[in-house]
Amino acid sequence: MTDPREVVEQQLAAYNSHDLDAFAATYAEDVLVNRRHGNPLQGRQALRDTYAGQFAEGRCRAEILGRLTEGDWVVDHELAHGVADEPIRVLVAYRVREGLIDRVDFLG
Fold it and tell me: What distance in Å separates the CA atoms of residue 33 and residue 104, rounded to the nearest whole number?
């Protein structure tokens, strides 16, 4: 069984290196992403479509300020760069099942 922390760490490394294929590969085909301001994303292709532009521009990066884990869940306290004019702090909860992230909840 894959450690959820390892999967989330692989996702973060792909995000920070703007590798869309490696990033998408860490997510389940039917992933549900509940974003901070509504408009949930459903499915890996929607995730790819949403992140493609910012990855191509190379403008996004996340720093982990803290991490908690429990069972299938990994909750990161992140400082996100390049998604707004100034870095923003956000909590992101990732659920990992069968070695892939199948749910993401952006909090705050």
Answer: 5
Q: How far apart are CA 108 and CA 98, in angstroms?
A: 27
Coil, helix or strand for 5? helix
Q: Which residue has the tokens 């803290």?
A: 66
pTM greater than the 0.70 cutoff: yes
Q: Distance between CA atoms of 83 and 100, rounded to whole angstroms?
A: 24
Phi, psi of 98 (to 5 degrees): 55, 40
Q: How many CB atoms lie within 10 A of CB 59?
A: 12
32-51 confidence digits (pLDDT tens): 999 988 889 999 999 999 99
